[in-house]
Design goal:
Rossmann fold, nine-stranded mixed beta sheet, two-stranded antiparallel ribbon, binds zinc ion
Length: 295
């Protein structure tokens, strides 16, 4: 295994050295190697506004309880990545995940790219991501200002991240990090009509419509190639759940019984298996793939 990737600062490619206060850190940017391999800490607060420790906990709960949305979303991501790779005709060299959270998607990238770097603002989520990945270099950072080297990556992925931050700043940073012609795979909560307390709890700034996302991408140096929605078949149920009086329906959606989870998962699985080649016109999540336009 190539250890050089975490012997040097992933931003500056310099070996860390003891600084004035006795800590070991990159002398150029201040990033310091954590006690865990491949994981680098920032000295600045990198938590997005509105996505606090409680939001991070809820995300971890979804990931660890094997939730029907998370589970089938991963299968859709794998399919979309394979479709993008087939169009590209060559494997990816340097993949980047912005906002990797607890790292559930990193194995998908490690299987498809020679090197993977992942950025997230939360230390605890990064520690989980480190434990669940094999080769990914993990960097604590602000996803709208990672300070990683420009034009290094031929694949950038960000799953349900853009809604937590300034969309234009995020897509501009993603474009800065991407090589010309690089691929982007993005997902976001869809349809403002689904806005509910669940978005507030998750720290979302907005839910996206395709046209709005298309304009944001084009304004930031990306050419949209395709898009689809996820949880299209469950959309009426999700709509009802989000608008049902009281909290029972939303709680059932967030923490379903095993039987309900199996049933909803089966609907999503059917959708991913049979309908994912189509561009589904609605759903609770928007998926977009795009190419970096040459400057
Ligand atoms: Zn550095």
């Amino acid at each position: 295994m190539n250890t050089a990737a975490w012997d040097a600062c992933p931003r500056c490619q310099r070996p860390p050295a003891p600084n004035g206060s006795g800590a070991v850190a990159c002398t150029a940017c201040g990033l310091s190697p954590s006690p865990l391999p491949r994981l680098w800490w920032s000295d600045a607060d990198t938590t997005p506004e509105g996505f606090d420790a409680a939001s991070a906990d809820r995300l971890t709960d979804l990931a660890t309880q094997d939730h029907f949305w998370m589970r089938e979303r991963a299968r859709l991501v794998a399919r979309l990545l394979d479709r993008m790779a087939a169009t590209r005709g060559a494997p990816w060299q340097h993949a980047l995940e912005l906002g990797c959270g607890s790292g559930g998607s990193l194995p998908l990238l490690e299987a498809r790219a020679r090197r993977v770097v992942a950025v997230d603002g939360h230390r605890r989520l990064l520690q989980q991501a480190q434990a669940g990945s094999n080769t990914t270099v993990l960097v604590q950072g602000d996803v709208t200002d990672t300070r990683l080297g420009a034009h290094q990556h031929d694949l950038v992925m960000a799953l349900d991240v853009i809604e937590h931050v300034d969309g234009h700043a995020f897509l501009t940073e993603a474009r800065r990090l991407a090589q010309p012609g690089a691929d982007l795979l993005l997902s976001a909560p869809a349809f403002p009509s689904l806005w509910s307390e669940m978005d507030v709890m998750a720290g979302h700034r907005c839910r996206y419509r395709w046209r709005q996302m298309q304009q944001e991408l084009e304004r930031s140096g990306w050419r949209p190639v395709g898009h689809t929605h996820f949880q299209c078949l469950l959309f009426p149920l999700v709509y009802a759940s989000r608008h049902w009086p009281g909290r029972t329906a939303r709680k059932a959606e967030r923490q379903p019984s095993r039987r309900l989870d199996r049933w909803l998962g089966a609907v999503n699985r059917f959708e991913v298996n049979w309908l994912s080649p189509l561009s589904l016109p609605f759903g609770s999540s928007l998926f977009v793939w795009a190419r970096a336009v040459a400057p």
